[in-house]
Backbone:
C-alpha cells in the first residue's frame, strides 16, 4: 500500500546533456623575480637592527619603570621623617 514505485530503468537518464568544455584560457607568463645576495643581506641586517632597537626600547622602559617606583617610594616616606 505505502511501498514506493521504482522506475523501470535501473539508471535514470542524465538531467543535462554532456558538453565538451572550452579550453582553459591562456595564462600570462609570470615575470621572473631574482633575489640577489645583497638584497637578502640588507633584509637580514635591517631585521637585526630593528630587533636591537626594540630590545633597547624595552630595556629602557623597564629601567624607567623601576626608577619611578623607587622614587615614588622615597618621596612617599619623605613627610613622615
Residues:
Amino acid at each position: 500500500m505505502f511501498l514506493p514505485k521504482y522506475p523501470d530503468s535501473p539508471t535514470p537518464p542524465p538531467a543535462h546533456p554532456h558538453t565538451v568544455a572550452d579550453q582553459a584560457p591562456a595564462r600570462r607568463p609570470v615575470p621572473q623575480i631574482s633575489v640577489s645576495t645583497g638584497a637578502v643581506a640588507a633584509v637580514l641586517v635591517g631585521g637585526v637592527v630593528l630587533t636591537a632597537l626594540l630590545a633597547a626600547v624595552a630595556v629602557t622602559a623597564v629601567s624607567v619603570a623601576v626608577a619611578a617606583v623607587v622614587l615614588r617610594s622615597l618621596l612617599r616616606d619623605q613627610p613622615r621623617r
